[in-house]
Specification:
single chain, 8% strand, two-stranded antiparallel sheet, mainly alpha
């Protein structure tokens, strides 16, 4: 072995080890997002079931190992707050995933695709665009 390759071997092994660790973190985060998304979907179904129930004012719900009868409005607010927490957790993990994938691509010497860090538009931004587009259209129709 030449001296250059002897010196490069520890750096190569360190880079390989780092990329392996980051890759495992990415896979673990992806699995966690899948699990949280399943919980979010189940929660969404529960919210829909509570809203569609017309006859009952109180509903039975399982909390831990016990069934408890809870007011329908209270149960709905609990489920809605749980939904918000799940959304925040999923978005937080997804944001972290972007950074980890970026670090992994750098270690592997790959270029990060353009638009990799694009984010979805908020409801306010979309409504503002709709309002602006409507005003512009009305202005041109008036002329």
């Amino acid at each position: 072995m030449s001296r250059v390759s002897e010196r490069a071997l520890p750096v190569y092994l360190q880079t390989l080890k780092q990329s392996e660790n980051i890759g495992e973190e990415v896979l673990a985060d992806q699995q966690q997002v899948v699990e949280l998304d399943k919980r979010r979907q189940t929660n969404r179904q529960a919210i829909r079931a509570v809203k569609n129930e017309k006859e009952e004012k109180k509903m039975w719900v399982m909390m831990g190992n016990e069934f408890v009868k809870v007011d329908k409005k209270v149960l709905g607010s609990w489920l809605e707050s749980d939904q918000k927490v799940l959304d925040k957790e999923i978005n937080s993990i997804r944001d972290g995933l972007k950074n980890k994938v970026q670090a992994l691509k750098r270690l592997e010497g790959e270029e990060i695709p353009r638009g990799f860090f694009l984010e979805a538009m908020s409801k306010n931004s979309l409504s503002n665009i709709g309002n602006t587009a409507g005003k512009v259209t009305e202005r041109y129709l008036d002329e």
